[in-house]
Predict the structure.
Amino acid sequence: MSDGRIAILGGGNLGQALALGWTRHGGVPADDVMVTRRRPEHATLLLGGDVKVSADNPAAVDDADIVILAVQPQQLPALLEEIRGSLPGTRLIVSVASGVALESIREALGTDVPVVRAMPNTGASIGASMTCLSADDADEDALQDAAALFERLGRTLVIQENMMTPATALCACGVAFFLRCVRAASQGGIEVGFHPEEALLLAAQTAHGAAALLLEGEGHPEREIDRVTTPRGCTIAGLNEMEHYGLSSALIRGIKLSADRAAGLAD
């Protein structure tokens, strides 16, 4: 994808993470990125940096090749109405608003500009996002352009649009779920004698290594678990105790509930 000017409409945590990822890790010049927020002074992650922050959505869109819709789903209709007449120079629109269909966005904008849905996460700020992407068959070229853009922020996966809401639960909410697991592991480390900062380092790096075994080795979790689990050993004892208290079922139920809640966000 050729470089272009990017307008990120919505300077919340995710919008700011995208801006930081593209400018710090994705090779996009800061001068080519504009982030909008009703109160620019609240874009705290960008304050003091080179990324421009504005409160003027139409002006940002008018100057952009690529428009990222990064507001809350319930805020999207008003935003689409606001920018409806400012899209002549835009070649790609990407919505990261959960639960809002491509058809609804196109109808609200009344434009032929290709629209792609994306679900990244805040790992984008360090180039470590998992981003799911979806588009209609007619927008296949735009989908490839969007994939090239988001691959600068981590990994991407193209999925059917009806899977975008589940992707919200597993990829976007999932950051919080896995961080809570790391936090719990670090608290266990304190229980067995480590200082808090030591326990957090040990837990976080161990989680990083465990994920890397799957991503780089393309293995299966149970295969890697078997490699560190011996008969009557300490690993199986710990695993069985965690499962007794519902570790796996709690994660599964949490992801399912998050997906159900995400499905209703647009309402």
About this structure: The mean pLDDT is 93.
